[in-house]
Amino acid sequence: MAGDSVRDDELAWLDATEQAELVRGGELTPSELAEAAIERIERTNGALNAVVTPLFEKAVAQAASAQLPAGPFRGVPMLLKDMVCHSAGDPLHGGMRVLRDHGWTEPEDSHLAARFRAAGFVFCGKTNMPELATSVTTEPLAHGATRNPWDPSRSPGGSSGGSAAAVAAGMTPVAHGNDMAGSIRVPASCCGLVGLKPTRARTSLGPGHGEYWGPVAHEHVLTRSVRDSAAVLDTIRGM
Prior knowledge:
By secondary structure, the protein is of the alpha/beta class.
């Protein structure tokens, strides 16, 4: 386990850049990072309700695979917001009870998810969000409210509230989010994180979605460091 080289309570607060450096330097393996992240999610998620769809078995298999891409973030665990950035064979609810009850899954990776995979990220789960990302709080009827790790009596904001709560709690160093009217920036502010809405067309949704939200909705991540936000943006940039 990760504790043999880096104590897990220290590992939880390393940013994605440093975790990737530990893998490249041979100090940790992708499997150790994935297992440590899963343990943290299992330990802390009950109080926060940030992760609504665990993908633990897939994460362990992905981390241990010889085919894990040798991208700049090889082996670093991340979470995907349960909206737009869908992964092959996994549930996608968008905060909606109808999709949850139907057991809807997506047949393939979205363009952005494929870019995250190529960067070497290991998907550990999907994060909570308000229905159809239409609120600045994260309280969907489908999955219940997400709580702020700094003060569980307060909201982590929205609509990328589950992602923000998870990163702020140390579950993973980075989590996907999207932003039309503050959906990355509001929860980043509420949870003390770095949240950037990228320039239009900087991160592409690819042919599967195109620009169906026009020039106002952009995809990126929530992080604990500016360098992570910048490095991920460089890695997944589109146009």
